[in-house]
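User: Okay, second chain of the day. Same drill as before: sequence in, structure tokens out.
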Amino acid sequence: MTEPSPNRPPGGVNPGLKMFVIGLTVLTVGAFFVFFLKLFSTFMNFSEKKEWKDQRLEVAEQLRSEGLTEQAIAQYVQYLDQEEVDLKVRARVSQTIGELYAGRENCAEALAWFYQAREAQPAGDVPADLKSAIAACRQKVRRTSEIP
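Assistant: Same drill. Structure tokens below.
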């Protein structure tokens, strides 16, 4: 029988090293569990957000039709704050928000939304009603700024 080497303990592995490897393994398994749990919950929340996105637009339309302008604007803005809104839809919703502000005689805010709507349009394809709304608000803003 051979005698154990003085650098290696009789059990084969140093107990301190063995505990370190076991601890590191437990930590790694725990990290993977947390990662997959987070990945799963993110996936589930994504599908819920996507479903609610269209409902938020419907709520905004209902509020607008009932004359609740401020609440409708808030819903439209929250809708636009969500990721992945199609540019055509973004243009339409931005123009709607601008129209709501213009209806409240807040042309400065309306212009900001009209400009967003214009920029979301395909190049050179700005609707005539948007052009006229921008021109009307520009004129009102200029008149207001000229008053001492």
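The mean pLDDT is 83.

User: Thanks, on to the next one.
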